[in-house]
Structure formats: C-alpha cells, structure tokens
Amino acid sequence: MSRTTTAALAAAVTALVAIPATAWLVSSPGERTASRLPFANEGTGLAATDVQAALAEISGRVKAVESGQAALQGAATMQDTRLSSVRDSARVQESRLESNEVRVASLESKVEEATPRRHRLDYSDGATASNPTPAYAPLRTVGTFAKAHATTSALLVWNTHVDAAGDPGSFCDFQLRVDGKPDVEDEGGGGGRAVVYVPAGAAAGAGTASVAAYFARVGAGSHTVSVWVRGSARECNENYGNFPRSVLVEEGPRG
C-alpha cells in the first residue's frame, strides 16, 4: 500500500472519530446509518462527504493500489522470465563460440601440419667401411632435425657419390636411416638406398647417387639421420674426396 493511500486512510479514520458523539446520540436510529453520517474530508484527499462514501472511496483506492502492485509483480515476473531467457541464450552463444574456437584451432593445426617444414643437413667429409658384412651397420651420422608434429611424415632426399673396391661383382649397399631404422619395418628393405658394384674386369666401381626415403611413422621431436652400409666388397666409400654434401628433410602431411 502506498504512502498516499496510508495517509488518506489515517486522515479518514481521524475524521470519522472526530464526528461529534452528541450528533450520533441525538440522531434517530434511522439517521444513524453510515450513509447519513457527515464526513469532514478536508485534508484527506477524498471527495466523499459522508462516511459510507468515504469508505467506498478508500476501498476503491486500496483495490487500485493492490491491482497496481499485482501488475508490477506480474511485470517483474515477466522481466525475470525474459532475463532467464536472455541468460540461456547467452549460454548457448558462449557454447557456440567455444565450439567455434575449438574448430578454428583444429583448422589452424591442420593448416600448420599441411605446411611443409624443410631442414638441410650439410656435411663434407668422406666415410669408409672396410670389409662390410651382409648385414647393415652404421657408417656415419649426418645430423639431427626437429619434427614438429606426430601426425606428419618425413621425406629425406640424399645426393652423394659412392665407391666400391674389391673383386668384380662385389658390391656396397648404402642406406639412409632415421634413428637407426629404415623407412619400412623390414630391416633388409626400404628406400633411400644407393648401390654400387665392382664391374667385371675392374678392381673398383663408382657412381653418383640421388635417393629418397619416406618415413611415415616418425613422431614429433628430435631425430637423427644416419647412413648405414652392407656389402661384399673389400671397401665401401661414401663421398670420397670430401665434397660438400647434404640431406634434405621435408616434414609434411602423410600421403
């Protein structure tokens, strides 16, 4: 109930109390009805001039105030409902934004993985293996490279010069490896191989080599590139004469 209505009620009650008792006592029973009792409305804010009308006016105002309060409560409830709806919508939007951020991060990661990363491992000294065996054995370490992603592959390209010294028909088989392993599960197979034979009627054979090896299952991190050799020749030489050589390493998406 508002302060104005409360003040009006207080003033009305005061005015009702102020009705002369003698007027009530001397009046006849028929005249003692509320509708015939005079009401002093000065200062009350009411228009009624008798008690019954004043009570009716006050009751009407109270109902109006109560109706207004109910309307305000209804409006407040509606606002709460709208705010709750807005909050729910905001949560949905936040969830969508988070989902989009995850998708963007995934796409960025895929784009980064699809972008080739290249390394070049340089060397210039020669390497020799005397009396190699039929099984591969380490000949030299070329260098190391860092692989950024676990889901990418590594392609190695090697250009060099190889020699074999020994009986005609003997050979030297050189192979590129990563972390001491060929690019296939089979220890005796794989790519990245340069093979040279001693021709008939000669004591040695030589040739240039340009080979590649594809490593599809090399994890992220640091890896070592090396050259291994096997053969039946008396001596196997790689880069005889100490020329500048290199192994190119390219990290890229798996084929």
The end-to-end distance, rounded to whole angstroms, is: 80 Å
Number of helices: 3
Oligomer: single chain
What is the class of the largest domain in the CATH system?
Mainly Beta
Task: Kindly give the count of domains.
Answer: 2
Would you report the number of β strands?
Answer: 10
Main beta-sheet strand count, sense and barrel state: 6 strands, antiparallel
CATH topology of the largest domain: Jelly Rolls
Order of helices and strands: HHHEEEEEEEEEE
Outline: rod-shaped
State the CATH architecture of the largest domain: Sandwich
Which parts are unreliable, with pLDDT below 50 for 5 consecutive residues or more? 12-28
Q: Calculate Rg over CA atoms.
A: 51 Å
- Kindly estimate the percentage of residues that lie in beta strands according to DSSP: 25-35%
- Helical fraction equals 25-40%
Secondary-structure-based class equals: alpha+beta
Look at the structure and give the mean pLDDT. 84
Structure description:
This protein has 255 residues and is α+β, with helices and mostly antiparallel strands. The protein is built from 3 helices and 10 strands. The protein folds into 2 domains: 1-114; 117-253, Jelly Rolls (Sandwich), CATH 2.60.120. Helix 1 runs antiparallel to helix 3 (51-114).
Secondary-structure blueprint:
Layout: H1 3-17, H2 21-26, H3 51-114, E1 117-123, E2 127-130, E3 137-147, E4 152-165, E5 171-178, E6 193-197, E7 204-215, E8 221-231, E9 235-238, E10 245-253
Antiparallel strand pairs: 1-10, 2-9, 3-8, 4-7, 4-9, 4-10, 5-6, 5-8
Helix pairs in contact: 1-3
